[in-house]
């Protein structure tokens, strides 16, 4: 079972719809067009379209499984007392006093550009269940980070 926000769930549903209703029919048309060109044994377009179809079917199956095991979190049951899924956490890196803010998200919603880190990432795991004022040490590929939790709030998404 994988918990996620309503926004994350809706994005996966939309992506699945796009794959099934737009991308897959486009690839099926490309296969039919390539098949009409004759000899399939040396038909590059046909083989490329078949590979694309297999890739799309794999992504569709993956997205379907994600949705099958997904559970949307009821935001009204969350607390900002400690760090958990969908917590927005303001941190200070104690090595250089830089501040950063992350939202703890499901692995399917994680996107560093949007400030969303996976609950299963090293930083996400280290912050889990900690409170404002706590200092955590996180082993990352570059070494050990010492982070102080400045504040915790609930994310809007």
List its traits.
five-stranded mixed β-sheet; two-stranded parallel sheet; 157 residues; elongated; 2 domains; Helix Hairpins; alpha/beta
Report on this model:
This protein is α/β, with parallel strands linked by helices and 157 residues long. It folds into 2 domains: 2-72, Orthogonal Bundle (Helix Hairpins); 77-154, Roll (Chitinase A, domain 3), CATH 3.10.50.30. The chain is 39% helix and 27% strand. It has helices at residues 6-35, 44-69, 122-127; strands at residues 2-4, 70-72, 87-93, 98-105, 116-118, 135-140, 143-154. The chain has a 5-stranded mixed beta sheet. Strands 1-2 form a two-stranded parallel ribbon. The longest helix is centred in the first third of the chain and has 30 residues, at 6-35.
Total count of domains: 2
Could you report the average pLDDT, rounded to the nearest whole number? 91
Q: From the alpha-carbon coordinates, what is the Rg to the nearest angstrom?
A: 22 Å
The SS-based structural class is alpha/beta
Number of H- or I-type helical stretches: 3
Order of neighbouring strands in the sheet with most strands: 5-4-3-7-6
Overall spatial form = elongated
Question: CATH superfamily of the largest domain, called what?
Answer: Transcription elongation factor, GreA/GreB, C-terminal domain
Low-confidence stretches at least 5 residues in length (pLDDT < 50)?
Answer: none
N-to-C terminal Cα separation, in Å?
19 Å
Instruction: Label the CATH architecture of the largest domain.
Output: Roll
């Amino acid at each position: 079972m994988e918990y996620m926000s309503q926004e994350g769930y809706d994005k996966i549903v939309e992506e699945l719809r796009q794959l099934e209703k737009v991308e897959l029919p486009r690839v099926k048309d490309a296969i039919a067009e390539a098949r009409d060109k004759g000899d399939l044994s040396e038909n590059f377009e046909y083989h490329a379209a078949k590979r694309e179809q297999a890739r799309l079917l794999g992504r569709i199956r993956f997205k379907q499984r994600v949705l099958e095991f997904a559970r949307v979190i009821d935001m009204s049951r969350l607390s900002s007392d400690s760090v958990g899924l969908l917590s927005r956490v303001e941190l200070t890196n104690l090595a250089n006093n830089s501040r950063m803010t992350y939202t703890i998200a499901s692995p399917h919603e994680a996107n560093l550009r949007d400030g969303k880190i996976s609950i299963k990432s090293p930083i996400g795991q280290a912050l889990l269940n900690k409170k404002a004022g706590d200092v955590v040490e996180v082993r990352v590929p570059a070494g050990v980070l010492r982070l102080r939790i400045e504040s915790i709030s609930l994310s809007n998404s």
